[in-house]
Specification:
alpha/beta, 352 residues, Rossmann fold, three-stranded mixed beta sheet, single chain, seven-stranded parallel beta sheet, 38% helix, 13 helices
Length: 352
């Protein structure tokens, strides 16, 4: 374990080849050269190790391909490491997929989280920050939701995250496991696999295809740029109080139809809504589609965090990233994400 002695802290980030994880890994590797960052990811269909080509040889970065829901592999990993902090982002997150892969969502999101809690307890990890979601609150509130709002998950994905939270809170009460929970609004930005609405609409429109919109598209989403979320995790990791939950949100929101219109304007140069509708294809709605998730992030702001990237700048950065076709080569299976049937299997992409 001599490799760890030169580092002030060793931070394990799970899901570090996914969207938020890859941005966070880049953020902390560059900001904290005195921290060793260990990226643990199972390289499922929406992950890509190519996010980290620029840092793979840096002395404070290490990648380990491990599935967090494999208890034997995790036990072996922790027995050979000296982990100080964990930021747990690894999860199955796409709501559409959760309707037909529900058991897999439970395996990854619930069992994987509990295995990490066990490792935290057994190997004396000083702090674990667990990413949950705003969707645990349900989507029918017109008022801002604070961290004490009741849970009302309405789909298999949000139910699996709510269940993982309940397991985590049981470890806090039973074992005083040093944990913090986060619940974020919809995160967007560079590096997001195009099954999620913003990169999916961008990719379809750039191919001259229509945005596939659930139902009438009246559901509203609050969007937060990924850099602001990375900054939030930095603040929570260093200043957050154990045994607390923190909302990570913004007040900026728009409907999915409004989002489609804005992207059609940017990409196709069309401004008349009747003409815009030619680039929208209505598809059957989800069995249930939450309306909105307005969050009260006052508790996090009291730790001196505030979102800094407004929608206009964040969207511009996002559009620029997806305009570079070489970036899309990070996912050889990307085209399957633009098909409503989704990837052919959860492990359809394994890098050479």
């Amino acid at each position: 374990m001599g490799e760890f002695f030169s580092f002030q802290r060793v931070i394990m980030i799970t899901g570090g080849c996914g969207f938020i994880g890859s941005n966070l890994v880049q953020y902390v590797v560059h900001k904290y050269p005195n921290y060793l960052i260990i990226n643990v990811d199972n390289l499922s269909y929406s992950s890509s190790p190519y996010h980290h080509e620029n840092i793979k040889n840096m002395p404070n970065y290490k990648f380990c391909e491990i599935d967090i829901s494999n208890s034997i592999a995790m036990e072996k990993f922790f027995s050979t490491q000296s982990i100080d902090y964990i930021i747990h982002l690894a999860a199955q997150t796409h709501v559409d997929n959760s309707y037909w892969w529900a058991l897999h969502f439970s395996q990854t999101n619930i069992i994987g989280t509990q295995i990490l809690l066990e490792m935290t307890r057994k190997y004396n990890v000083r702090r674990i920050v667990i990413a949950s979601t705003d969707e645990v609150y349900g989507g029918d509130s017109e008022l801002k939701l604070d961290e004490d709002a009741p849970f009302n998950p309405c789909n298999p994905y949000s139910a699996s995250k709510a269940a993982a939270e309940l397991v985590a809170w049981s470890y806090w009460h039973s074992f005083k496991t040093p944990l913090i929970i986060t619940r974020a609004n919809n995160v967007y930005g560079p590096g997001q696999y195009p099954e999620k609405v913003i990169p999916k609409f961008i990719s379809l429109l750039k191919q001259g295809k229509k945005c596939c919109m659930h139902g009438s598209g009246t559901e509203r989403r609050n969007f937060i740029y990924v850099d602001d979320v990375c900054n939030a995790y930095d603040v929570i990791l260093h200043k957050g109080f154990l045994g607390e939950a923190y909302n990570i949100g913004t007040d900026y929101h728009l409907s999915i139809r409004e989002l489609a219109y804005e992207l059609i304007d940017h990409i196709r140069g069309i401004t008349n809504t009747d003409d815009m509708d030619e680039y929208i294809e209505k598809i059957p709605n989800r069995p249930i589609n939450d309306f909105q998730y307005p969050l009260n992030s006052t508790k996090l702001m009291e730790l001196n965090w505030t979102p800094e990237i407004d929608w206009k700048d964040g969207l511009s950065k996002t559009l620029s990233w997806y305009s570079d076709e070489s970036n899309l080569e990070r996912w050889p299976n990307m085209q399957s994400a633009l098909d409503e049937s989704g990837p052919k299997s959860l492990n359809s992409y394994k890098p050479e």
